[in-house]
Amino acid sequence: MTIPTVIGTFLDGFERVLSDAATTGRRLTRDEIESHRALGARAAEAGHGWRDLVRAHITAGRDGRPVAADPVRVLTVIEQAVDAFADGYERAQRLVIRKEEAVRREFIDDLLHGRGDPGQLASRCERFGLRLSRGHAVAVAQGPETYDETDRVPRQVADDLFARFESRRILFTTKDGRMVCIAPGDQEDVLIHFAKLVYAATGASQVAIGRPRTGTVGIGHSYEEALNALDVAQRMGFEDPLLPASEMLVFPVLARDRQALVDLVHHTLEPLVQARGGAQPLLDTLTTYFDTGCVAAAAARKLSLSVRALTYRLERIHTLTGSDPTDPAHRYTLQTAVLGARLLDWPNRPL
């Protein structure tokens, strides 16, 4: 078998080393090992397949062995040479992978935060499989721990995700301890499955999904929406594992004018601090009452109270605030103020 010339250049000096070492029985010198490592690195950088390179070494060893040399010595020299060559080859490949990974992470960071020239971002998108002619949505997963891509949980999620959707144009990464998935906006099944994988891997997590947006700037906006949804869920005490940002738009609207929200909470709910035990028990009562659709029996069960005790609390709230939770005319203002209090973490934090 003839070794292709393009492969043969990476076996420079191998037959000479083989002839000398196999005849004398010596081991390869440090310089010879380093030379073979360097050749292996060059072969990897040139993109040659490992199988062809090993075959070339075996062929060169068979054709270039000294006739009188002990076969065991010949095999020992080939083993040492191939081992050094493989070490250089693998090091070069790991370096390329690290460089590619660094480029990929830099690209995703720029994409999520809208950094850089939009035209350059668009051209980089094509390299990583994103088509900006369609909208994309971003899902952000927050688990019980912080993660980076080398951790077991993100690797498991990524492997399972790409195994199922290998033909889809999706990106996965970790950012600030959270797992992030970017997928075409019309492929909600990808992001829903991502949420299921994260929950299965962590046992307790929340995944927020931003609305689909077009262009590189749109991806950044979808990411920010998902982060805001996670923040709102934490402040409001929501425990739902899946948080679509499209279903939580009222909260950014409420929080947009903070001073107006502070005024509303202060004017509407501040009198509750006069109650025995402070404002928190009555605020919890209002929260549960509104969350159960203003059904007194259901709210009482959730609070482990009798209906009579719940009714007393609602009457006490009416007396202190002047607003009746059972009156539809007052209910909207009270409920909005309760939402605002949760966003502002009142009364734990002063207004």
What's the short version?
By secondary structure, the protein is α+β, with helices and mostly antiparallel strands. It contains 15 helices and five strands. The mean pLDDT is 86.
The percent of residues in helical segments reads: 55-70%
- Largest beta sheet: what is the strand line-up? 2-3-1-4-5
User: Roughly how many Å apart are the termini?
Assistant: 84 Å
Class derived from helix and strand content: alpha+beta
Number of strands: 5
- The helix/strand series, from N terminus to C terminus, equals HHHHHHEHEEHEHEHHHHHH
Number of helices: 15
- Cα-based radius of gyration, to the nearest Å: 33 Å
Mean pLDDT over the residues: 86
Largest sheet features: 5 strands, mixed
Q: Can you tell me the residue ranges where pLDDT is under 50 for at least 5 consecutive residues?
A: none
**What sort of overall outline do the alpha carbons produce when their principal axes are compared?**
elongated
Percent strand: 5-15%
Word description of this protein:
The chain has 351 residues and is α+β, with helices and mostly antiparallel strands. The protein is 63% helix and 7% strand. The chain contains 15 helices and 5 strands. The chain has helices at 5-8, 14-24, 30-45, 50-64, 71-113, 118-127, 152-164, 188-202, 215-236, 250-256, 258-269, 280-291, 296-303, 307-321, 328-344, and strands spanning 136-142, 171-175, 178-184, 206-209, 242-244. Helix 11 packs across helix 15 (328-344) and helix 12 (280-291) crosses helix 15. 32% of the residues are buried. The model has no long low-confidence stretch (mean pLDDT 86).
